[in-house]
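fold-stage: in
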Amino acid sequence: FAGNVVKAMGGATRGYPVVSRMLAKRAPAAPEPAALKARLDDELRARVHAVERLTPKIVEVVVKAPMAARAFQPGQFYRLQNYEAHAQRVDGTTLAMEGLALTGAWIDRNEGLLSTIVLEMGGSSDLCTLLQPGEPVILMGPTGTPTETPSGETVLLVGGGLGNAVLFSIGAAFRAEGSRVLYFAGYKTIEDRYKIADIERAADSVVWCCDEAPGFQPGRPQDLAFVGNIVQAIEAYGSGALGPVEIPLAEVDRIIAIGSDGMMNAVGQARRAALKRYFRPGHRAIASINSPMQCMMKEICAQCLQRHYDPATGTETVVFSCFNQDQDLDRVDFRTLRRRLSQNGAQEKLTKLWIDRCLRHLGWRAAAAAE
């Protein structure tokens, strides 16, 4: 019954009588039922540990869930949702969240803590700021396939906005395996940058990119800065316009791009055009695809289906992004991804407006604006 959740349920249906018969033949063992229940509650019942606003539009939610934290591997994600019973209510509206797919930013295995970073885009993502320390939440995961982090490679990480939160643990894992990491961290505005120390720890060299002038000041001798978009920054780096570099683009074995579909598509197109001369043939390019998601239970609802196109053979295939979000950059059909991301646009706009109204009535929006 290896595979999806439905198959697992079938396995449990056939397997539990066998397990029950075997347990009936054995004497009860430690721990006592009460102690076992307490241990399972502590390990499995997720509770909010802290909620911190990092930027005007980004919130960090730290959850205490020891077993989920220990199981995490870089690149995986969680499904976070509040309980309706604990949700606030305003004007007849229950502020219950839909399940949100949130990538783990960092974990503390000793304390049983895991961090998720939320970009407030309206709707359920805006409700994360209402979560209170100690509040029980629904946390599924970790799910998805861990990012491959082989040893002895030179890796180029390309992060846009919220995508930089995903790359903290990935970059650190590469460096722990002995790989070199060159990190391009891109932002729209100066105030969008967060977790600077985490990004520096994840890379041997960082190029800070910002669309807004005057941009950033590098905090380490080996780091650089650029005002403009991330593709322009890679071009400037490769051409030598930023000065001497420690890691030439010609030595890159693997590219991992994480950010908006527009940014990842731009990186993919530039690799085949303006940037092609800087990279050696045969390097791998991976994009972490942010498909729409609903169940996140692997091959169930198909909300996360992503079309692939093989440029060599013309073969079309589809994959479940919740099963493996890291996909071949040259095969991803970004046009289809953009259409799927906007398929519920009208409903999402209405929900965004209503949630904004509810938060203002609760005083949360006014308080945030005053700060």
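fold-stage: in (second)
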Amino acid sequence: MNWPPHGANPHYIYEAMNIPMPEKMIDLSANINPLGPPKILKKRWPSLFQSIIEYPDPAANRLSEAIAEKEGLAKEMVMIGNGGAELISLLGRMFSRKKVLIIQPTFSEYEKACQINGCEVVYHSLDANWQLRLESLPLEGVEAIFLCNPNNPTGVCFPYEQILALSELCRDREIYLVIDEAFYDFWEDYQSLIPIVENFANVILIRSMTKMFAIPGLRLGYLLANGKVIQTLVNYQSHWSVNAVAMLAGELCLQEETFIQETREYIKKEREKLFSFYKLEGFIVSPSETDFYLLKDPNLKGQLPLFEFLLRRGIVPRHTMNFPGIEGQWLRLAIKSADENDQLLEALKEWKK
């Protein structure tokens, strides 16, 4: 079967599964803030709309300056991209023909970007408890590492001390360490890695603005790294890569600290509700600290029957067929509105009967 490579756009999975698509669906395959975009975006939409009649700033100076100021970094350490996917693609070009280690299970775009650019890709899997064991990393000849933190698809988070230790290990071996923080702002106990970026020229952070602020249609992300790394990547980037509406929306979203805190509190409350149900009903979940998690029925070796059951009821999980190491053994589910989460639980009760 030709499995869709990502979540969202549920018609693709219904076509692949040859299942009629219901009129009403709950899409749990995309990890987007269930509270929707900040209200300021709708309020300011007329002014954002006006920006489409002019070419965007190819250097995204205003947004870069705003991020630099917020993080206490030099502007030369900030790069704006057309979503995290573009930034990953540019890193693939920078690592062309190098040996790259990917820590899995993880986002499939790292592998794709590296393979397209002729990299030698090697892999290391998290342990049975989804933890990262630095002493077992296969670092011989490796020139770059991709690590997703919080991890996608598990939602598991690796602490600051471990990231610092890995950064030191990579620095001593002259290895680039790319840390994808696409979901960092959902993590309640997050400790900023900015001090590491400032002190380690080999460390690169990728952040998305589309998940927390529910603007995936605008495509917006940024990268934080040493100025020399930024300049190399900028030379690869297409002119006018990021549109004007996205840049202006990004400036507004950076001011939404209260929105972020409200989101974290909401996600925590709903996650606790969901996980209590799963424990009671005998489902197994990954110990997520974000807005998504892995789930499986331990009575099934593969989760395809449960996946199809939910699809036929208009509930769309994310398949895991293209997550190396867990292919089809779990389903990934996003935390959505309280009502949508309750509908998921009702469906799972029916499944257990």
